Amino acid sequence: MKFTATQIAGILEGEIDGNPTAAVHKLSKIEEGEKGSITFLANPKYTSYIYSTKASITIVNKDFIPEQDISTTLIKVDDAYKSFSRLLEYYNQVKNNKVGIENPSFVSESANYGDGFYLGAFSYLGDNVTIGNNVKIYPNVYIGDNVSIADNVLIFAGAKIYSESVIGQGCVIHSGAIIGADGFGFTPNEEGEYSKVPQTGNVILEANVDVGAGTTIDRATLGSTILRKGVKLDNQIQIAHNVEIGEHTAIAAQTGIAGSTKIGKNCLIGGQVGIVGHITIGDRVKIQAQSGIGRNVKDDEVLQGSPALNYGDYNKSYVYFKNLPKLESRISKLEKE
């Protein structure tokens, strides 16, 4: 796909300074710009690169005035960073604008889908699946029986969505994600053997939830595992049965959340965090990477460590942790004296 400076300026409502017919077909960093690419300048520390970049088009702020000759065509906008992000979004929409059903695929006679639907090869749609408009499902995706998928959902190659799951408008599910696998429910008998507890609930993703590659979200034992609108999950996260995550909470990779835990709104959870089951975490909580959470957490707490401490207390304590060998040596010396 090729775009001219005139077309891009129209999309971004920008002003052209240079060649309006300059054409691009790829994106680049400003320091790695090549002919036929488009880049942007937002951070002043990269300003020097605009005089050497070979990018055909560069998006800049309106107040940018070159101090040397440049070869790149400028598109001036109010906010270069936001405009470039907007252009990336537009590019993805164009790139993902596939339609039709590729073969071989299986589509149940009782499944139905809306306008602008795309289904990649080797995919499966089960009985009574309902799919909205402009949904794009890439190859090798499994959609189980009675799944409901709203408008403008993207499901990338190899994702698996088990039966009864509900996927809200604008959700993005990346490759290898598994939505609705059985929760980890077993009961031991007197002989120490385990019997499986049937997992009869489902998973609900509300609007605009992003699920990273390789992430697993288990179905509830009863009721629903729920991710509220705007939740963002990184890759390789485990969310157990009956967990509920509040609106606009973001969770980094390799975090594990045990069953029936409730997490509030607008929380930020770092990578490799472990959270026990059956606790409540409040709103706007921040948990640093590799922390272990074993208790209820109040609104606005900031935690670090395993088991996690208040962030300020942890940092004060760390001063002593790292000096323990020196302190032990001093104590031993004093005892000998």
UniProtKB/TrEMBL annotation:
Residue ranges of the TM segments: none
Residue stretches in coiled coil: none
Domain UDP-3-O-[3-hydroxymyristoyl] glucosamine N-acyltransferase non-repeat region: 23-89
SUPFAM superfamilies according to UniProt: Trimeric LpxA-like enzymes
Enzyme class: transferase
Molecular functions per Gene Ontology: UDP-3-O-[(3R)-3-hydroxyacyl]-glucosamine N-acyltransferase activity
InterPro entries: Hexapep (IPR001451), LpxD (IPR007691), Trimer_LpxA-like_sf (IPR011004), UDP_GlcNAc_AcTrfase_non-rep (IPR020573)
Described function: Catalyzes the N-acylation of UDP-3-O-acylglucosamine using 3-hydroxyacyl-ACP as the acyl donor. Is involved in the biosynthesis of lipid A, a phosphorylated glycolipid that anchors the lipopolysaccharide to the outer membrane of the cell.
Family: Belongs to the transferase hexapeptide repeat family. LpxD subfamily.
The reaction(s) this protein catalyses: a UDP-3-O-[(3R)-3-hydroxyacyl]-alpha-D-glucosamine + a (3R)-hydroxyacyl-[ACP] = a UDP-2-N,3-O-bis[(3R)-3-hydroxyacyl]-alpha-D-glucosamine + holo-[ACP] + H(+)
GN (gene name): lpxD
Protein name: UDP-3-O-acylglucosamine N-acyltransferase
E.C. no: 2.3.1.191
CDD domains: LbH_LpxD
Origin species: Croceivirga thetidis
Catalytic residue list: 241
Pathway(s) this gene product operates in, as recorded in its UniProt entry: Bacterial outer membrane biogenesis; LPS lipid A biosynthesis
Quaternary context: Homotrimer.
UniProtKB keywords: Acyltransferase, Lipid A biosynthesis, Lipid biosynthesis, Lipid metabolism, Repeat, Transferase
